[in-house]
Design a protein that fits this description.
- The protein is of the alpha/beta class.
- Helix 5 packs across helix 7, helix 7 crosses helix 8 and helix 11 runs parallel beside helix 12 (330-340).
- Strands 7-8-10-11-12-13-14-15 form an 8-stranded parallel β-barrel. A 6-stranded antiparallel beta barrel has the order 16-19-22-21-20-23. A two-stranded antiparallel sheet has the order 1-5.
- It has 14 helices and 25 strands.
- Strand 2 and strand 3 (132-134) form a beta hairpin.
- It folds into 3 domains: 2-140, no CATH class; 165-375, TIM Barrel; 394-521, Lyase, Ornithine Decarboxylase, Chain A, domain 1 (Beta Barrel), CATH 2.40.37.10.
- The longest helix is centred in the N-terminal third of the chain and has 16 residues, at 43-58.
């Protein structure tokens, strides 16, 4: 696989002319948070970038060709296919194939982004929260650019291939699987489970996600840099001193104790602003928050004029399977219903995709926090998504670095614990626990080489692992080894990989380290 990068930004001007008159006046040029400090791109630059985006979307040219476009969007070396409608004259060829839906959407997104306007979804009217209006229009500022894969014989030491098209299709399937009235909150915790929060967030914004949920404020700020208008919910408790960060990045906290509610109220009073908050529900078998603390917290927020209770958060179990720990305290739900009835407020409950939401009372509307299912992990039996079949979206690959013939009795792996019971041919793959291949994978996991399974042997080291390829015929250094994914007729799912190692899918995916290159398929 060959992967190329496409990034859009301003052409750097001479040092004496870095800012135009609008930037000097402090006006917003519409190109991100710090755009007023940079030079405003000329019309030719904007149009050139728009043409580049549209070319990729319509399959007109390949990304290496786009990297050679000049500032006006014209191809420097005319490497477009015949009758493709290239940009040699700045005009489209009438012989170009009919535009598809994705191409039109990308063109629309590009024009709105580079013109500094809003992108995509709009909730219609402005919502009023507290003293001022909160705009419901949604826009995306695509700062990271687009990376697109192409066929190549290049082999990387260790890499992950992520299909963003499958991510979008999973969101569409999820909407068809559940009632149309349900809202969908995309969970992007831990860098979107290792898939890359920026890339996943952009695709999900275009795919119809109603809101996003992350673990902490720093993750929320990363998602906020990409798009404005989507609500970003912070699931974990805040640390004292972080309150200003929530206000600056328009983040929604989940309050879990009365002291936390008091901190946000004090910060809101200091800033003269109001804040929407969610309340963590007490669940059976858990003491954080206790039912008494939850009641005190609810009363404090309802009596506050600065904190606006919007929803209840039902935390997940962390086990990847439904259990009694995911059931909310029914006594508190009844107490909350009575408290909200006189106020005329109608909060909702958002729950994880492993909860049995049907067991909850119908006094509140329910929203789904879709996490691993969006990224291709099968839901557990007994959850609300039982029977849902997501599309596989990730492939974890390595390559063979050495091939050795070892005699019977030789030892393989760390601590020399694995002893060969016969004369064997052993291949070393360039993936270890420093990349995300579990140390315990030896004797428990397999990889796919040339369309056939090969068992991992010995304890996995930091940078490599041994694989028994004695049954293979021709095999060469540089051959790919698939750890998770498919090759030929074989397929190792994330569920099988985790089952063999007795770990959860979230644990396996987030263990894939940053030194493993991530590449994204962005087009159908």
């Amino acid at each position: 696989m060959r992967w190329a990068g496409l990034h859009f930004g301003h052409a750097r001007r001479k040092r004496g002319n870095m800012r135009d008159s609008r930037s000097k006046r402090g006006e917003n040029s519409g190109l991100g948070h710090s755009a007023s400090r940079r030079a405003r791109p000329c019309q030719a630059q904007r149009e050139g970038a728009i043409r580049a985006l549209c070319a990729v979307a319509k399959g007109i040219c390949k990304l290496p060709d786009i990297r050679r476009l000049d500032r006006s969007g014209r191809a420097r070396n005319r490497t477009f296919p015949r009758n493709s409608g290239g940009f040699a004259s700045g005009k489209q060829n009438p012989a170009r194939p009919k535009e598809n839906r994705r191409a039109v959407l990308v063109e629309h997104a590009a024009r709105r982004f580079f013109d500094g306007a809003n992108l995509g979804r709009s909730a219609g009217k402005s919502e009023t929260a507290g003293g001022g209006k909160v705009s419901a229009e949604r826009k995306v500022s695509i700062k990271k650019g687009i990376r697109q894969m192409e066929g190549s014989s290049t082999h990387l030491r260790c890499s992950v291939y992520i299909d963003l098209c499958a991510l979008e299709r999973n969101m569409g399937k999820l909407r068809s699987f559940l009632p149309k009235s349900k809202k969908y909150i995309a969970l992007l915790s831990a860098d979107a489970f290792g898939y890359g929060a920026e890339a996943a967030a952009v695709r999900l914004m275009l795919s119809g996600a109603d809101a996003f949920a992350v673990t902490n404020a720093s993750e929320g700020a990363r998602v906020r840099e990409i798009g404005a208008g989507w609500q970003i919910i912070i699931l974990s408790s805040s640390i004292p001193g972080e309150e200003e960060y929530y206000f600056e990045n328009l983040l929604t906290p989940v309050i879990s104790n009365p002291e936390e509610a008091e901190r946000f109220e004090n910060c809101a009073r200091k800033r003269g602003e109001k804040m929407r908050v969610h309340l963590r529900l007490p669940i059976l078998g858990d003491s954080v928050p206790s039912p008494d603390d939850a009641k005190t917290m609810l009363e404090k927020i309802l009596s506050s004029k600065l904190l606006i209770p919007e929803a209840f958060c039902l935390p997940g179990t962390g086990t990847g399977a439904p259990s009694e720990g995911s059931v909310p305290d029914p006594a508190f739900l009844e107490y909350a219903r009575k408290k909200f009835s006189p106020c005329g407020k109608k909060p909702y409950i958002h729950h994880s995709d492993v909860c049995d939401a049907e067991s909850m009372p119908d006094c509140f509307e329910k929203s789904l926090r879709a996490g691993l299912v969006l990224f291709g992990v099968q839901p557990s039996q007994g959850s609300i998504l039982k029977g849902f079949k997501p599309e596989h979206a990730l492939t974890f690959r390595s390559s063979i670095s050495q091939i050795k013939r070892l005699p019977k009795g030789a030892t393989v792996g760390y601590s020399r614990r694995h002893t060969l019971e016969r004369d064997s041919k052993v291949a070393l793959i360039s993936a270890g626990y420093g990349d995300g291949l579990a140390r315990e994978a030896g004797t428990k996991a397999s990889v796919i080489i040339r369309g056939r399974r090969a068992p991992v042997i010995g304890i996995v080291s930091m940078d490599q692992a041994g694989v028994d390829v004695s049954e293979f015929g021709e095999i060469e250094v540089g051959d790919e080894a698939v750890i998770i994914g498919s090759m030929g007729g074989e397929f190792i799912s994330i569920e099988e990989y985790c089952r063999n190692l007795s770990i959860t899918p979230a644990q396996a995916l987030t263990s894939i380290t940053k030194r493993v290159a991530r590449f994204y398929k962005t087009l159908y």
